[in-house]
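At this stage, I wrote out one protein's amino acid sequence and its backbone structure tokens, and that material follows here:
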Amino acid sequence: MKIAHTPMPLDPSPPLDRLSSLLERFRVRADLFHAGPLCGVTRFSAKPGRGFLHVMQRGQMVVTHRPANSGRNGAKKSALKRIELDEPTLLFYPRPLAHDFHNAPTTGADFVCATLDFEGGEHHPLVRALPAVVVLPLRSVYGLDLTLALLFAESQKVRCGQRFLANRLFEVLLLQMLRWMLDHPTEAGLQAGLLTGLSHPGLARTLTALHERPAEAWNLENMAAAAGMSRSAFAAAFKVHLGVTPADYLLRWRVSLMQTLLRDGTSIKSAADELGYATAASLSRAFTQVMGESPRDWMRHR
């Protein structure tokens, strides 16, 4: 879906932190698993809930993708074309997608690679909002050089705390890339979804408020007021940039939070209190509406 241009409200307010509330509630953990050259063909398998972040420091490479065995996004995944790289590049796979690196048999290319485990797997809000693969030349993102210099230095020899520090640096790298995507949604190839909504100054204020205060009695009027827009302009812009209505987005956000709470052992009644529902039954109905099964059935399947 192509994002149509909508008038942006004037934004005299101070800068807004659009990502912290998301990443605090739905964490992402990186785990360094390779540093150094790769030669020949290297295969990376798909695993539920797991993504990859690769940084090619030097060299040339071709990347191909293998069809997914299953999953709702299988058709899109299998349609991805080969990618040819000839400069330092970051490759980000937010969703499970089998891919192969084809390097020269002897010279190869230098890499640091990490797996990314998204809390909630395919239901992580960022996983749902991102393309299947993000290809980003390192020269495109201001500020990456400092993070990468430290990351490459840590990967060259074993020192105390090396893996712990490298993992945190990959998480910093991911955050810097997300910041760039929010500021450059067209160049990032973003479709209608959460990140395009957070790229809009008015919608971003409302989305951040929903993320931080999901239990409030939100309705169209106070959501539009948070954005500094009229109700009609807000509703239209929300649908264009996120692909859903404000009410649908709030419902899905609360259900996503409930999934996290249930995984942490919170009771349905306590979750209802935390998410602004009058009763456990009303929250269970909302959950079933979105997920197609009751909270207890959902937990039993996991």
